[in-house]
Structure formats: C-alpha cells, structure tokens
Amino acid sequence: MADTFDLVIIGAGPGGYTGAIRAAQLGLKTAVVEMAPTLGGTCLNVGCIPSKALLDSSEHFHAARAELGEHGVKVGSVVLDLPTMMQRKDKIVSDLTGGIAYLFKKNKIIHFQGKGRLVDGNTVEVIDGKSTVPVKAKNVMLATGSVPNELPFMPFDGERIVSSTDALRFGLVPKHLVVVGGGVIGLELGSVWKRLGAEVTIIEFTSKICGGMDSKMSKRLQQILAKQGMNFIMEAKVIGADVTPEGATVHYESLKDGSAHDLVADKVLVATGRRPFADGLGLAEAGVNRDPQGRVEVNQHFQTSVPSVYAIGDLIRGPMLAHKAEEEGVAVAEIVAGKPGHVNYDTVPGVIYTWPEFASVGKTEDELTDAGVEYKVGSFPFSANGRAKALASTDGMVKILADTKTDKVLGVHILGPRASDMIAEAVVAMEFSASSEDIARSFHAHPTLAEVMREAALAVDGRARQM
Ligand code: FAD
Asked: Closest residue (by CA) to atom 34 of ligand 1?
C-alpha cells in the first residue's frame, strides 16, 4: 500500500485498539498491525476477560454448592459441566474480539494481519508468512504488550508446567494445582480452580501476597482465602520441578530455615509476572532504547528515543493493567493529533478479583509513611452494612487515607464484595482532588455497599455511624 498513514500502531491489545479508535475519531489516517488471528490482545483473548468469565462461572458453581442453602434455596446435587463453562468463556471472548473488528471497520481503521517490525521511524514492515509489506507512517505507536515470565529452570510445556494462558483452558479440574507466585494472576486463577474442586497451593517468595497491597488487607485476604481452603507456603523459593507423565514434583526451599521440600502436583502454574514483549520488533536496529528490565524507554509524552515512535501499555514502565494501557493509547493519539494527551498515574486503580475482591487507588499507608506524609485514616467494615448482610458477604472493610492538614484523599483501599465496582467512586473523587469530607457529604443510596465508602469517609473525622 503506497499510502502514508498518520499513525501506524503495532499491537491490537487494549492500548493499541483504544488508541486506534481515538486516533480515527480525531481524523487521523490510522492502521493497526496485529500478528494474532483475533484483535484485543492479552486482555480480551487470554487475560482480563476469560479470567473474569471463569471467576464469575466458578463463583456460581461454588454458591450453588455451598451458599444457596443459607438463602433458603435448596438445590439437588450440583454437577460441574466444565466444557460448557469453557464454551461460555470462549463465546464471550469471540463476541468481544469480533466487536473490536467491527469498531475498526466502523472507524475506517486499516487492519494488517501479520507481525510488525520497525524498520525506521517512519516505516513498519508487515510480515505475514508469505510476504513482507512496507507500510509508511508519519508516526508509529508500539503497543506489543507483554507475555508470561518463564522460569529458566522449569520452562512452560503447556501440560504440566503451565502459564496463565494454559490455566484458562484446562480440560479437567486438576487434583492438585501448585501456583508459583502469590500475585494477582496466581490468586485469581487459583480461586477459579479451587472453587471448581482442585486442591490449590500457592508458593510465594515473600512474606506477603500481592506485594504492593495495603499490608493489613493483604494479611486479611490471605486469611480469608486460607479459610476457603487455599494452601499458602510463604517465604519459599521454588528451585525446580521434575515432570512425570502423571504430574510434576515441585522442589522448593524455605527462606526461613533453608530446609528443602517437595510437593507433588498434577499442574504447576507459574505466575511470577510478565515481561514486556518486543521479540523481533526491530527496536535495536531502529534505534529505540530499552531499560535494563527490557521495557521501552519513553519520555512524559510517550516518545521513545526515535521521536516519531511512541510506546505504551505493558511494553513501558508502570503497572501492567488494561485500563492503564488504554489511557496511554488515547493520550498518544491525542498528542499525535496536536492535543495535550495526558495520563494521571496517581489515580490508576488496581483490582484483585478474588472473593471478596480487593481494589485500591492512590497511596498505601506504607508509602505515605516512607514519604513522611502525615495522614488520617478512616475505616469501616462491611459487617455493619445492611446490603452486605443481605448479600451474605460481610468480610472486609473500606479504608480511606486523607492528608492530615488539607483532608485531600490520598488513597482508598477496599477489601469486600464488588470492590472492583466501588473503587470507581474513589477514582473520580481523587481525580477531582476531593477531600474525605466531600465523600462524607455526598449522598450514597441506601441500602448499598457504597455506604461503606461514606462511613469510612465519616470515620476519617471520627464520626462514622452505625447502620
Ligand atoms: P497486550 O494486551 O498484551 O496486546 C499486545 C498485542 O500486540 C497482542 O495482541 C500481540 O499479539 C500483539 N503483538 C505483539 N508483538 C507484535 C508484533 N511484532 N506485530 C504485531 N502484533 C504484535 N489487567 C487489568 O487491568 N484487569 C484485569 O483484570 C486483568 N486480568 C488479567 C488476567 C490475566 C490472566 C492476564 C495474563 C493479564 C491480565 N491483565 C489484567 C493485564 C492486561 O491483560 C494487560 O495489562 C493488557 O492486556 C496490556 O495491554 P497492551 O495493549 O499493552 O498489550
């Protein structure tokens, strides 16, 4: 194609496709190069969406087996139909990835299927196996995302030593699933398989699950998950695994006393994080710099060391989250269109979709203490909330941290039912630089889980009420 595009995006994950749509809305002639057969990237195909579909389905299964009786709903024997659960998940994924293809057509975004390689600041080659097509661009956005980290001493084999992608499509419920890494992905997929009947053991290197999380809530979430039957081996280092036709024996060392242990599993999920993916992207040849962690280096306008080449999402610094990638994709489209694109990194929410869920935005107490910031704390438990009682989901609390002098909200941490939806209020409040008093004085419909947010805000000023 002889045309020169205003913007060529490599990678159609949430960063790339959202950026493409914004660019098209702004009148930019836009193309996207994607090597996978479907659009949507990690998030839609093997990340956020399929994992949440399985979390929701497995929650229903667990509720039918263990919780409906409490509501006076008697069901007979509850049987898992795993193929139907997986088909439902796959249908959600194909509906959504098809939706992106529709949006591309609607917005006149040109889609090149093939592997993109940066030749120079204004040329991308599209390699589709049979041919190599050069595509000319005034600007390029790199949005190639990330892939699961592999442990060099126990590489993925797709059968016994598996990645998150494999753990979204097991054909049978494992008898014993060992999860290496007590982070978000390990806890979410561990929850899915635990609810469906597997024994699940998490082996975590540090003394805390989900490292950056509010310390007390991390401890509480671990207690709740342990009560649900999940096993935790903390402060332990996995050093290898022997794979057999029946399963795998995982070897680990305790960091507390140096003792060596073995654990027999039929599946081992390695969930020790993800690495930025730039294999074969031609970065070094094109002069695009990367940092020691392999992330593409960008300035505050997402420009790489080649000024016409931008990078966003999991490929660059910052939390590896779909909504962070989306906002960066939009910001780059706006910058390329001559507008002041911007991302506020102080208000990026993070969510763990266990039950109860955990969601947070802003600073933790540990971070404020380390930074020497004086703050007030207001917290309120779900156990005193009418709606949480009606739902029979009363574990957890909301904690609001506000500046001692100005009362500005600095951080909100929620462990509780539907924390993922509740955190949106805190994000908007912080985006508008709200004080805890602003939240406390705002109407919150009764009876709702959101009232716990208001009570926590009132508690910052020592005046929470009992409901
Ligand atoms: P990606 O989504 O990784 O997309 C990159 C795309 O680029 C891919 O489609 C890839 O095929 C393509 N590509 C790569 N190289 C090339 C090339 N050279 N040429 C052409 N195409 C190329 N985040 C959340 O916010 N919430 C969640 O609940 C959540 N759950 C998750 C659950 C799991 C199991 C996993 C694995 C991740 C989860 N994430 C979640 C993280 C989220 O998926 C990522 O942060 C997000 O997808 C990153 O978006 P991206 O656009 O940067 O890259």
From this structure: 47
* Whether the CB of 11 sits within 6 Å of ligand 1: yes
Angle at 43 between CA 270 and CA 159, to 5 degrees: 35
Residue 414 Cα to chain centre, angstroms: 16
Q: Is 205 in the pocket of ligand 1 (CB under 6 A)?
A: no
Task: Measure Cα distances from 136 to 1, 125, 139, 157 in Å.
Answer: 9, 9, 9, 39
Ligand 1 pocket test: pick from 48, 274, 361 the residue with the most ligand atoms within 8 Å of its Cβ: 48
| Residue 164, CA atoms < 13 Å, CB-side half-sphere | 29
CB 357 within 8 A of CB 374: no
Strands 4-10 and 30-34: what pairing? parallel
- Residue 2 clears pLDDT 90, i.e. is over it: no
pLDDT at 230: 98
pLDDT at residue 320 is higher than 80: yes
Question: What percent of the chain clears pLDDT 70, i.e. is strictly above it?
Answer: 99
- Residues 366-413 pLDDT 10s: 999 999 999 999 999 999 999 999 999 999 999 999 999 999 999 999
Q: Find out whether 203 and 252 touch, Cβ atoms under 8 Å.
A: yes
Residue type, 57: S
Q: 349-365: string of b/e by CB count within 10 Å (b at 16+)? A: bbbbbbbbbbbbbbbbb
Average pLDDT rounded to a whole number, residues 128-135: 92
Closest CA to 14 of 308, 323, 388: 323
- Res. 418: pLDDT tops 60: yes
Sign of the alpha-carbon dihedral angle for 299, 305, 311, 316: negative
Provide the edge-to-edge strand list for the sheet that holds 231-233: 161-162, 267-270, 176-180, 199-203, 231-233
Give the rounded distance of the alpha carbon of 76 from its chain centre. Answer: 36
Ligand 1 and 43: CB distance under 6 A: yes
Q: Which two tokens stand for residue 137?
A: 């661009």
Q: What is the pLDDT of residue 465?
A: 82
Whole-number Å distance, alpha carbon 12 to ligand 1 midpoint, is: 9
Cα separation, 275 vs 273, in Å, equals 7
CA distance 199 to 187: 13
Which of 298, 318, 300 shows the shortest CA–CA distance to 310? 298
